[in-house]
Amino acid sequence: MENKKYSKEMLLGMYEMMLRIRKFELRLTEYFTKGMLYGNIHTSIGQEAVAVGVCAALEKTDYMTSTHRGHGHSLAKGARSDIMMAELFGRETGYCRGKGGSMHVTDVSLGILGSNGIVGAGIPIATGSGLTSKIKGTKEVTVAFFGDSASNQGTFHESINMAAAWKLPVVYLCENNNYGVSVNIHTVTNTETIAERAVAYNIPGVTVDGNNPLEVYEAVKKAVDRAREGKGPSIVECMTWRMRGHYEGDPATYRDKKITEEWAKKDPIENFKKYLIEEGYDEKELQAIEEAMEDEIEAAIQFALDSPFPDPSEVTTDVYACDNERSVAR
Amino acid sequence: MKKISISAAIREGMREEMLRDENVIMVGEDLGRMGSPFAITLGFLDEFGPNRVIETPISESGFTGMAVGAAMRGMRPVVELMYVDFVSVAMDPVMNQAAKMRYMTGGQVKVPLVVRAPMGSGRRNAGQHSQCLETLFTHIPGLKVVCPSTAKDAKGLIKAAIRDDDPVIFLEHKLLYARKEEVPEEEYIIPLGQADVKREGKDITIITWSRQVYFALEAAEELAKEGIDAEVLDLRTLVPLDWEAIRKSVCKTHNVVVVHEGVKRSGYGGELSAQITEELFDELDSPVTRVAALNVVPPFAPTLEDAFFPHPEDIVKAVKKVLNR
Q: Which ipTM score applies to this complex?
């Protein structure tokens, strides 16, 4: 059954991608608990609709920068779950050959200019990508994903100010999950929304329901079209909630239980499934998608576990592109 | 050969690279009409236009980060920080982004970025405009560090830095800009990682770079009057380091003084001293000695600033002490 506005392919594609992200990250939490994953794991469980809605509005040739909570962004932009899983397990078959891990997933050929471990650091990098498109006269748009709390970094102001002054083709995408680790955004910020800061740069700024992928898609599509037409950047703020702690192992006791329960009712995947059924999609078909994602992620786990760790000799490679050995030696 | 100033040499080198490769862009404050405070980009805006001469707001973190993003997309940005001291507000893009991007992505990404910055004491600019900070950068794997001393070297090295696929920190001493020297007429490149013997000698090696090269040469002339024959080795590039040149010179003279204008504590001189001591101990007739700035904040008053950083007489004194003369 076809929705009037959105094709079946698009809607089921969004559903599939949200499930891919959810199942990917649920397995991460499982393997983290088993002690088989290293470092920090920041899941975006509960925020999947943002990544999926944004990337649905992008072309393959478009670019993005991501954050420490970036698994969803990369998968939605086209990263393969098996290669990404291998990276998170520190294996040589991973996107970064085991040298980056969860916070540095990158595939430039897919337009993924890197997740980033420094809050707010991806924003100027995205701006530089936008500058490049402008200089070269090409039509790519770059999305800078960042969280609500990154909007209090200087890089947010500095980057958006430059992009606005020079009409760079960038969409500044704030994923507002209300918390910077344990700090509620409203205790450290005097505006009701992040998007209203757009006024300071004389650019559009909108706030949308980040748990509804179609609402995200519509807002981002508008901002992307505007950027592609050379009219400059926008801020799109997506209100959402991370259903788990800042990182695995964080019980997130700093959040009000009642609010957490309220948000649990807004699970983007559950709600989108309801919407699809209301739209007349076959529940069995949706079930089949879910099972396919289950299988895909299981295969990704197996691929990761079957892959070797990088050889210790790789520790000194890739520091420099030219004259690496000598530059590393002393 | 023609005689031009070091600032003109850097300008010529960058202009040649901009003409050669349309991906080379300039990014920084006051690069347009003003042509940068030290006139390094004079005329660039008229010649190359605002698409390639990006005159930025005062947003060092933002525009340096932006340059990293542009470099990841295949551009070759040359960022100017007005003074190297200002890198404090652009350190994340330099240290955590540019330097680490290639490694963290498993070799996928190149960051062909040059960050140029004037450095150095002697202009009575006080604490926040006078530092030599090359050591900060040598401590960060992923960065290359260049500190030229002559017009010829500055031109050849800036061209090499722009063509290099890695982030290069290019540090220019403010008191050398006006110095006029001979530069070849024809195009040339000086590869990164090649030291230059600026004066041959057999009794002691003075390892140095940037403005201290001239102080070392002055000191060597003084020492020659007393029968001490000093070799002056200008490293030109700190990373990659020309170890072979150091080894060769140390094996010839068996005595070493390292001279730099940055403060002594945790300076690059300590690093060189350690490497020489660890690997060439048997060659040494004396402990490797450092001559460097005092561990204080660059002062303002002339009497204080002159007492802060090394001068030729300090080098002479150190050499004589090492040689028991």
A: 0.96
In this structure, is residue A319 part of a structural domain? no
> In Å, how far is A249's CA from the nearest CA of chain B?
25
Q: What is the CATH number of the domain that holds A262?
A: 3.40.50.970
Instruction: Please answer yes or no on whether A125 and B65 come within 8 Å at the CB atom.
Output: yes
- Model-level pTM? 0.97
**Residue A160: inside a domain:** yes
Of A147, A106, A96, nearest to A129 by C-alpha is A106
Tell me if chain B has a CB within 8 Å of the CB of A260. no
Q: CB under 8 Å to B22, separation ≥6 — which residues?
A: B52
Catalytic member of B12, B129, B172, B181 = B129
Mean pLDDT throughout A7-30? 98
* Domain boundaries, position A110: 8-307
How crowded is the C-beta side of B163, counted as CA atoms within 13 Å?
17
Over chain B (325 residues), the average pLDDT of each successive run of 10 is 96 98 98 95 98 98 98 98 97 98 97 98 96 98 98 98 98 97 97 98 98 98 98 98 98 98 98 98 98 98 97 98 96
Q: For residue B141, give the nearest of A165, A317, A328 by CB distance.
A: A328
Which residues, 6 or more positions from B1, have their beta carbon under 8 angstroms from its beta carbon?
B182, B183, B184, B185
Tell me, yes or no, if A71 is annotated catalytic.
no
Least CA distance to A140: which residue of chain B? B73
Crossing angle of the two packed helices A8-33 and A81-88, in degrees rounded to 10: 20
Q: How far is B257 from chain A (nearest CA, A)?
A: 19
Q: What's the pLDDT score for residue B131? A: 97
**What does the pLDDT read at residue B1?**
87
The closest alpha carbon to A54, from A44, A69, A67, A64, belongs to: A64
Answer whether residue A258 shows pLDDT above 70.
yes
A121–B72 CB contact, under 8 Å: no
Give residue A4's pLDDT.
74
Q: Evaluate whether residue A200 is within a structural domain.
A: yes
CA distance B164 to chain A (A): 7
Interface contact B69-A107, CB threshold 8 A? no
Q: Is B60 a catalytic residue?
A: yes
Q: Considering only CA atoms, which of B204, B145, B194, B189 is closest in space to residue B170? A: B145
Task: Kindly name the residue from A68, A71, A244, A246 that is annotated as catalytic.
Answer: A246
Look at residue A31 and give its three-state secondary structure.
Answer: helix
Q: pLDDT-derived band of residue A1, with 50, 70 and 90 as boundaries?
A: very low
Minimal-distance CA residue of chain A relative to B55: A162
Chains A, B: CB contacts within 8 A come to 171
Is-catalytic flag, A69? no
> What domain count does chain A have?
1
Segment 146-205 of chain A within 8 Å of chain B by CB: 154-155, 157-159, 161-162, 165
Alpha carbons B317 and B325: distance in angstroms, whole number: 9
Residues A284-329 have pLDDT tens digits of 999 999 999 999 999 999 999 999 999 999 999 999 999 999 999 9
Residue A87 lies in a domain: yes
Answer whether B62 sits within 8 Å of A154, measured CB to CB.
yes
Give me the helices (H) in B257-309, please: 268-280, 302-308
> How many Å is the Cα radius of gyration of chain B?
19
Contacts of B101 (CB under 8 A, 6+ apart): A114, B68, B72, B109, B111, B142
Say what the pLDDT of residue B206 is: 98
